[in-house]
What we know:
The chain is mainly beta and about 190 residues long.
Amino acid sequence: MNAPIGPAWSAEAxxxxxxxxxxxxxxxVAVLSHGDLKRxxxxxxxxxxxxxxxxxxxxxxxxxxxxxxxxxxxxxxFVVNHLSADQSxxxxxxxRRDRNAPDGFPGAGTVWGERxxxxxxxxxxxxxxxxxxxxxxxxxxxxxxxxxxxLDAAVGTGRPLLHCAGQLLAPPxxxxxxxSAHRPGRQPCHQ
Length: 191
């Protein structure tokens, strides 16, 4: 059984009305990053989904009123940093309105690692990364769906961070793709 890590979003974000059904969807948690290493930008999302294998495409939905949406569409490239289970503090930070304040946050210098092939900042120690280029966007209800081509991808280490019912969760075992390289102290998944 998964143990809650703590509240997923700020009190402000939790005030958004949700139905009992949608609040129980389980999804991965990612930070979409863009910009450069001098001024990296990011936003927490749980709406990234595989849209196509051939060609490799992902989609992400952002609120129409989101500043992050406008920035992402202007940048045209971004990285999906799938967070690992021990990065719940980053998920909370990048869900805040002041997430990209000029003074940053404690430890910001060690949070950003290298850059993607396209030059976008990568979050260190993420579970995986997808380097993406915006293909198109379309209105869907109160959100805009951004469709992006995956230009490059990499798998990190660790268990992915999950979101369900307003909580951030860690799966009880490593993903199957990592279980073949069992690491001490980690429980491999069995199929």
